[in-house]
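Exercise 7.
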Amino acid sequence: MDDIANDISSTIGRRIHAERVMRDWSLAELAERSGVSKAMLSTIERGKTSPTAALLVRIAAAFGLTLSTLIARAELQGGGLLREADQPVWRDPDTGYVRRHLSPAGDIPLELIRVQLPAGAKVSFPAASYAFIKQQIWLISGRLEFVEGETVHRLEPGDCLALGPPSDCTFHALERGADYLVALVRA
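Solution. The predicted structure, written as tokens, is:
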């Protein structure tokens, strides 16, 4: 793991630990609520592994947070301007999914996230990860198949999709990959 990925893993791990301690939860309690083993949670909290998107979504949902909020709390320091060089970037080690948090920290419930999903890659999130947010997806380039519950949406560049009620969702980048913006509003 390179130094940048290691730093991000450590930062995310420290934030998960802080969220757990704020709630006065043991590792066992977080494991039960998230469905992630105590051993894996301990490894993540110590920054010894880079967790996958699927694991982070389960941990965030256990805290009643979105993946974006969990990562933002780990990475952002505050202020009205977030320069490109300072925008937190996280890569899912399993899929190559790259997530850039564009929004400065603040009290505004809007978050902007840019995602690059390699060709053929799929990332799935449970309905629980959408319980506290409203979300729209705008495809910048490539082609994206988005499965929302039983509905399949095929997005072309420039298409914008407003998500409905929380349901299990899968992002699937087709042959050229997909570069898209996610705009979400926390409830």
